[in-house]
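Human:
Care to share another protein and its fold?

Assistant:
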Amino acid sequence: MLARSAFVAAAVAIATAVFLLPPASRLSWNSEEAVADMILANATIYTADPTWPFAEAMAVRAGRVLSVGGYDSVKKLKGRHTFELNLSGNVVLPGFIDSHVHFIDGGLQLARVPLRGVRSKDDFINRVKEAVRDKHHGQWVFGGGWNNDFWGGDFPTAAWLDDISPDNPVWLSRMDGHMGIGNSLAMRIAGIDKNTNNPIGGTIMKTPEGEPTGLLVDAAMKLVFDVIPQVSIHQRRDALLRASRHALMRGVTTVVDVGSYFPGQSEKQSWEDFTDVYEWAHSTKKMIMRVCLFFPMPTWSRVSELIHDKGRLLSQWIHLGGVKAFLDGSLGSSSALFYEHYKDDPQSYGLQLVDLDNLLNTTLESDKSGLQVAIHAIGDKANDMLLSMFDKVVDLNGMKDHRFRIEHAQHLAPGAAKCFGKHGIIASVQPDHLLDDADSAGKKIGIKRAERSSYLFRSLLDGGAHLAFGSDWPVSDINPLQAIQTAISRKPPGWEVPWIPTERLTLDDSLKAHTISAAYACFLDNVLGSLSEGKYADFVVLPCTSWNEFSSDIPNHVLATYVNGKQAYP
């Protein structure tokens, strides 16, 4: 196995070798007389390309794959200045694509109160208390990632926070982003009291006496968002760079950023992130990995005009993907829309966050203008509503390569998985979410319903859906290797048996869902997703030294990440 220090030395050598190439040799990667900048030799390369699934060598030129195959054929592309890296059998995979992230939010969260994995009320309070110590009087305290199911199910309340933060407003988002808790000071600043009514598409949780508990669900969160000081441009730019480094550390070379657009939140933030952060990073050459951007669907005409003016590819780094909307909320916040009521709340079937006729009309216009449409649906009723709506869109707009996306497709009614194949709908799913929901879904909707409907990856594939894996970071952490392991085993921590074992995937299915299928899901399969000739040379090197070792024991980290054939991590 190649040591980590060898990769650092290799990065310097590769950069030097490319710099020393004469100008004429930098012109075209596909020239008949092309010479490789770098050759990977003695490797175990999984290409994700069915025409040549495995290879032992790969040549890279000008950031693209020049050739892949046996060493005897690839070495013919070696020139005087070609750097050859002998991997001693190490497994190489295409760079992972995370199909669903809130990228800048994730970067911001890395610098806030970390509540993911907290398993007790005391730990929750202590982490916030520690953060408050570093704040000035009146300064907001932010955090996120908490999951009440980890400590028994009770929701936090403002009372948990008031004694430790009397002079600082606090806002802590739940892991799914569909609920948050604020202290009493934050509620007062937002003007929320017993007389405040629930907004459309949201809920202000209250005590039996009618007093706000501090919990806000979906659109109700906007009441607090409207009074939170805006995050500075400098902080958001730092967040992008921080997020990029974090993703590369996990082997992710491309993300689909669905933006800072949540129920109850203004569409304005996503556009400010584009102009103030992404365009800045592009113009100042700060981009170190690839992003595909989705914008709030209500702004579809602005997206269409932007693409008309600038094209879909701003550069090799930034791709303008399409538009995103929400139909329902989340399971953990009891706002995912189901046919049957929640087991722990017989009066609730979840929330429909938008008017379906308005959603249909906006989808029709977006699709007509050539934009890819991605819509969030978690509950079984919400997913059925979307599948029926996409039928109408095809009937009215005609057959074409729509590549409609349903984000999450988490709980499906019987027979729904087969409907995805009718129009080749993409199921953009997050395997690691099931690690949290395996224990809690039964409590929320009943064990039988949960086992019949949850995370039906195998059924979706068999029904003709295109699977694209993602993390929903910062809801779950970016960790493709763990997600692949989860999809294969479906064993949450502490479980000895799989949850719904019939829905397990093979290693090959899971790898493709994080590479070539994920690239297809955002119209980038012509340049990304597989180690095929002409595509970008984005790849990861694993610590495993054989395919058998990798397939029998998937590692929890990557050894190195390359973008454009250059080492980007470590």
Notes: The longest strand covers residues 318-326. DSSP finds 20 helices and 24 strands in the chain. The CA atoms of residues 253 and 413 lie 34 Å apart.
